[in-house]
Design goal:
This protein is of the alpha+beta class. Helices cover about 40% and strands about 30% of the residues. It has a seven-stranded mixed β-sheet, sandwiched between helices.
Length: about 200
């Protein structure tokens, strides 16, 4: 399977999921966007890494990981978003120490926060981008236009949120199906997924 390189386009605040954000990844050699729902802490960590002039007084968790890795000569070479199941993305950190490569499972939000700190490239597989990638109907700002924030425009945010909802496939589920999925997610301790399902149930 061929890999597709991605970069970070911006972050969109979710109007329907409390404390949730959509991280928008952009296909480097194309126009598709890959929206990924992340939590507030991870969104803050990614935003701080993107806004290089912002330096927290004490290291955040991802900064601590970077400091630890630097001390022991561990390098994150790349991040690969390798799987998509029920709207949840799964990622791996490709790490190297003493010329020995290791693959470490990670949440996608954590993996990207670390990729930024290690200046490591982010990839996904073509089949994942084919399945979850979207084309924005609203034209984003051109790269040479000045932006005051990494938060995307409201119109783009609305479109991204709609795309994320369709991606997760909860809109077409009945209440009975949603409650069954919620119970399954809780039993599997997949609380991130459970929160998304609860949000959809609350809209009914």
């Amino acid at each position: 399977m061929s890999l597709v390189r991605l970069n970070i386009k911006g972050i969109s605040y979710s109007q329907t999921q409390n404390g949730a954000y959509a991280l928008i990844l952009n296909e480097v050699d194309g126009d598709r966007k890959l929206p990924i729902v992340i939590g507030a802490f991870e969104a803050q960590s990614i935003a701080i890494a993107l806004e290089k002039e912002i330096r927290p007084p004490r290291p955040l968790t991802h900064d601590l990981f970077k400091n630890f890795a630097d001390r022991f000569d561990i390098v994150v070479k790349q991040v690969i978003i390798h799987k998509l199941v029920d709207g949840v993305f799964y990622s791996s950190l490709i790490c190297e120490r003493d010329k020995i490569e290791e693959i470490i499972d990670a949440r996608t939000s954590d993996a990207i926060a670390l990729a930024l700190r290690f200046q490591a490239p982010i990839f996904t597989y073509k089949n994942i981008l084919d399945k979850a990638g979207i084309y924005l109907k609203v034209s984003p700002k051109k790269e040479d236009e000045e932006q005051d924030s990494i938060l995307v425009d409201d119109l783009i945010a609305e479109e991204i949120e709609s795309a994320v909802a369709e991606q997760e496939g909860y809109k077409d589920k009945s209440l009975e199906e949603l409650n069954s999925l919620l119970e399954e997610a809780v039993n599997n301790e997949d609380y991130e997924k459970a929160a998304k399902i609860r949000d959809e149930i609350s809209k009914r």
